[in-house]
Write a structure and sequence with these properties.
By secondary structure, this protein is mainly alpha-helical. 72% of the residues lie in helices and 0% in strands. The longest helix has 32 residues. It starts with a helix and ends with a helix.
């Protein structure tokens, strides 16, 4: 029924909106300054791996079996994940039984979060919303989320409507950008560590360099697609290379709130997600954009 579908989508969206702010707060407590960039990158590349799996899995299951089966299986996977999460994960490193005393001491020395979570009335919303650094982070992340929407929404349409690929081939090619993003993200974390430790680049400057590589690189490669629109191989290479550079943003603007305000990183990421949601509503109008018909 339509009401049931709408209710499921609303609950799904509300629950998904909590993930990134919650993870950001946990990363602020678990990532030491000397290894900054690595933990966040490893965690957030998980979403890219899941996108790869989902693209391949849903295309094959839908083509070979039934589209309803996709929802049943993907709905059961998070239920299995909850069990080890509740049994093994702790919010505070001091309460964890999985790390050694030396690791706990390292985290105590190299993290700058307070012992207690700030209450809502203690969050300085006016200072956060008037900060140029915060808005710079938000706009950079909006640019990356627009690129993500381009890849997840328009690329499959382009492959199907313009290049006329069948759905199971479409899913394979659509997964390649996410694989590239995973690999580049891991390499970007090493690049970030090299810049900040070996080259002595400040963390803020290193974040800006990584985000610039991401955004400008994506724009440059994407602009070539209309010129090569009839060549499946070149389109695949350009789109894969463009979205792969999103991995640099994981150690760029995406992780920047950990530097400027570790105690309120969840709030900043939550505000970023509100802005992302607003621009996503605008971007959905591109789903039937006339450019797709013009490029046939």
């Amino acid at each position: 029924s339509l009401p049931g579908l709408i209710t499921c989508q609303v609950v799904y969206g509300l629950s998904g909106g909590l993930v990134v702010p919650a993870l950001s707060c946990m990363i602020a407590r678990w990532e030491p300054r000397s290894q900054r960039g690595r933990l966040a990158t490893i965690i957030y590349t998980g979403s890219q791996f899941s996108a790869v799996f989902t693209a391949l899995f849903t295309g094959y299951i839908t083509y070979s079996y039934n589209w309803r089966l996709v929802f049943y299986i993907l709905g059961c996977v998070p239920l299995l994940w909850v069990i080890p999460w509740l049994l093994l994960i702790s919010d505070n490193p001091a309460d964890s039984k999985l790390i050694s005393a030396e690791e706990k001491d390292l985290l105590m020395r190299e993290t700058s979060t307070s012992g207690l979570r700030p209450r809502i009335r203690d969050i300085p919303f006016s200072n956060i919303l008037s900060s140029r650094a915060v808005w710079g982070i938000i706009f950079a992340n909006i640019g990356c989320s627009w690129a993500t929407m381009h890849t997840s929404l328009l690329l499959p349409q382009f492959l199907h409507q313009v290049l006329l690929l069948p759905i199971h081939h479409n899913s394979i090619i659509s997964s390649l950008p996410y694989i590239g993003c995973c690999l580049v993200g891991l390499l970007a974390s090493c690049f970030y560590t090299w810049m900040t430790t070996t080259m002595g680049v400040a963390h803020t400057a290193a974040r800006k360099i990584c985000s610039s590589i991401c955004l400008w690189g994506f724009a440059g490669l994407t602009l070539t697609v209309p010129l090569i629109s009839q060549d499946t191989v070149l389109v695949t290479i350009a789109c894969t290379g463009a979205y792969s550079l999103m991995g640099f943003n994981l150690v760029g603007a995406w992780s920047n709130p950990l530097d400027i305000t570790p105690n309120y990183v969840g709030t900043i990421m939550g505000i970023s997600f509100v802005c992302y949601f607003c621009q996503k509503r605008l971007g959905l109008s591109a789903k039937k954009h006339p450019i797709l018909s013009l490029m046939k």
